[in-house]
Amino acid sequence: MVCKRIIPCLDIKDGRCVKGTNFIDLKDAGDPIALAKFYSDNGADELVFLDITATEQGRDTLYDLVFEVAKVIDIPFTVGGGISNPRVVEELLKRGADKISVNSSAFKNPKLITELSGNFGAQCIVIAIDAKLINKQWIVHLVGGKQTTEKNLFDWALEAQNLGAGEVLFTSMNNDGTKNGFANDALHELNSLLQIPVIASGGAGTMTHFLDTFTKGKADAALAASVFHFNEIKISKLKRFLQEHNINIRPVYND
Fold first, then answer.
1. CATH number of the CATH domain containing 194
2. CB 106 within 8 A of CB 145
3. How does pLDDT run across 10-19, given as a tens digit for each residue?
């Protein structure tokens, strides 16, 4: 049985790690290099690095910072933000990324998913989807949640899978930063619909929330930020809790 994964997320703005609520009111959360090393040393299964202003500012991801983070970790490393062509992906892989996360650029140019998957392998391509529940419909949003589309989460996720994506990272804008739990109903529907892994994002506040997203939401992995950045939940303690509740998860050996 494949192990469930715990994934801290570094949202990067101006070279610093930040965290907000519902995609707004961003607050400084620390030095990304120090946080990355801490997570790698203390039981995280993977690390996600999202340059959250790259697309809005029309630039590439912060290559130098990606390289510095990659040097201090020894876990799988996903990088997103400002990725719009194979050249950027190649540069990020050279600097230590293992996977890349594509959001707005893939939505605007779906053929990009097929191109990247063909060039680098589906296992390298994570499609990040930010969606908001509006009138009982999960609506996809772009550019860090600032741009509304007319497409729903499930249609876009299925299309992305069929185009060659290897994984979906779904962030609930309604749940983001609230610490009220993940959007498990939507996650369960995604997992029923897709054949590729789904990462849950948005809403982690307690260890029980992680348990719920693995059991009720059927998520393959759970991503969180503030509860880890501000030491509200220790990854080793979380993993022991999940093991005690019969979740198949990699243990922490150096705790």
1. 3.20.20.70
2. no
3. 988 877 778 6
